[in-house]
Design goal:
Strand order of the largest sheet: 3-9-10-16-13-12-11
Structural class: alpha+beta
Shape: globular
Oligomer: single chain
Number of strands: 23
Radius of gyration: 25 Å
Bound molecules: glycyl-adenosine-5'-phosphate
Strand content: 25-35%
Length: 459
């Protein structure tokens, strides 16, 4: 991977994982591939391989489970990527969704103006070679597309620049078709597209990526309490899925960063070798979205309280994060190269992913592949388990190497079928992090595993 000029290395001795190690693991083990690689690739666009798609699905499902399924006052939608073009005028994206870009006249490197260190802005110099910078130029990030086939009848519109707009568009339909009343929320997970001027740092800044949003509609008088509530809940959610809890923090937006309608905004940030970076934004959107869409569409989106009959435009608390940043941060957080020890003489690379999110939950391993009874018993157990959870069967190489292969992709449990199994139907279950082993009757293995890989979140 080519590192962009934006990469910063934190001070101190904390052993942050170099992004290249994650990139290499992802390619080698089938998590992430560069898109269109045989044609030379496209910057900022990636595909997800067999393990990547499992991890992604688990991340999405966990978010959905904890945000929609387990909250009575939250429902979900799935909106389209292409919408009426007026949507993006109303949202302000056509006019304001711009990045300012500068080039170094000497080394030709390109930078986002708002990412330059203050000193380089002051001196108008390149942070890498000290050369002179060009004047900032504005670039709109929206990706254009066209609806219709005939020249002259084609309508220019955009691939959505943020997924959340669908929620405002469907708000009135949800109100009328579901049994919800304010305060309530609408969630969505969906792709977004941005012509990022400096895509980079692997999945961190892409041109096609996936977002998850909660838009929570409230009475204006209750805005502060719901803002605080979701801010704390989202922080606790991220804490629950990482190991390095001290690498998570809030950062309040300064007055110069706040959108004109926002009274407050916080980023939940995670610290990696790239420094502290946004993972999710908690935004105080007030009535900006519903008032703009009311104005631009001519459709009144105000709400009538069923009891008091008060009519008002609801205010909105937004929590907006990224599936891809979660994917990347979880891999970084989970990655460890363990040196040789009493337990593992060769040392190993291990992903300490939470069992509920790990792409493969269990591997079934016959001790030897040339002993037919071991293989038959192992395959029978594999067939039983794969109906319940993602399960791999592996009989290639010695058992130590097979354990290490599973450790590297974060498989929390390995079940080994050995000669004792043939006598008393017990198997060995090895746990990834501690490498400890227990023996269990084969009939109890499904329940034992299901209890340990189920969704677990009680915040
Ligand atoms: N509706 C609000 C919104 O879109 P944002 O801060 O621009 O806010 C929300 O995006 C989240 O989407 C970010 O916190 C990040 O996780 C993710 N995200 C934004 N741009 C991204 C990109 N170019 N590549 C990957 N993820 C991105």
């Amino acid at each position: 991977m080519t590192q962009t000029q934006e990469q910063t290395v934190p001070t101190g001795d904390t052993p942050f994982v170099p992004i290249e190690k994650i990139v290499s693991l992802c390619k080698r083990r089938g998590f992430v591939y560069p898109n269109s690689e045989i044609y030379g690739g496209v910057s900022g666009i990636y595909d997800f391989g067999p393990l990547g798609v499992e991890l992604r699905n688990n991340i999405r499902r966990f978010w959905w489970w904890s945000m929609v399924q387990t909250n009575d006052n939250v429902v979900g939608i799935e909106g389209s990527i292409i919408t009426h073009p007026r949507v993006w005028e109303a949202s302000g994206h056509v006019e304001n969704f711009v990045d300012r870009l500068v080039d170094c006249k000497n080394c030709k490197r390109r930078f986002r103006y708002d990412h330059l260190p203050k000193e380089n802005v002051r001196l108008n110099t390149c942070p890498v070679c000290g050369g002179e910078l060009t004047e900032p130029r504005r670039f709109n990030l929206m990706m254009e597309t066209y609806i219709g086939v005939l020249e002259g009848e084609r309508m220019k519109t955009y691939l959505r620049g943020e997924a959340s707009q669908n929620i405002y568009l469907d708000y009135d339909n949800v109100l009328k078709s579901s049994r919800v009343a304010i305060p309530f929320g609408i969630c969505q997970i969906g792709k977004a597209f941005r012509n990022e001027v400096t895509p980079g740092n692997f999945l961190f800044r892409q041109r096609e990526f996936e977002q998850w949003d909660l838009q929570f509609f409230v009475h204006p008088s209750e805005m502060q309490q719901w803002f605080d509530y979701w801010k704390e809940r989202r922080f606790a959610w991220y804490q629950s899925i990482i190991t390095h809890k001290d690498r998570l923090r809030f950062r309040a937006h300064g007055p110069d960063e706040l959108a004109h309608y926002a009274k407050q905004a916080f980023d939940i940030e995670y610290q990696t070798i790239l420094g502290w970076q946004e993972w999710e934004g908690i935004h105080w959107r007030q009535d900006w979205d519903l008032s703009r869409h009311s104005e631009y569409s001519g459709h009144d989106l105000s709400y009538t309280d069923p009891e008091t009959k008060e009519r008002y435009l609801p205010w909105i608390v937004e929590t907006s994060g990224g599936v891809d940043r979660t994917f990347l941060n979880l891999l970084i957080d989970a990655y460890e190269e363990e040196p040789p020890s009493g337990k593992d003489k060769e040392g190993r690379t291990v992903l300490h992913l939470s069992p509920m999110l790990a792409p493969v939950k269990v591997a079934v391993l016959p001790l030897q592949k040339n002993k037919e009874e071991l293989v038959t018993t192992a395959k029978e157990l594999h067939h039983k388990l794969r109906r319940l959870m993602v399960c791999q069967y592996d009989d290639v190489a010695n058992i130590g190497r097979r354990y290490r292969r599973q450790d590297e992709i974060g498989t929390p449990f390995c079940v080994t079928i050995d000669f004792t199994t043939l006598e008393d139907q017990t198997v060995t279950i090895r746990e990834r992090d501690s490498m400890s082993q227990i023996r269990l009757h084969m009939n109890h293995v499904p329940a034992y595993l299901l209890e340990r890989v189920r969704w677990d979140y009680s915040v």
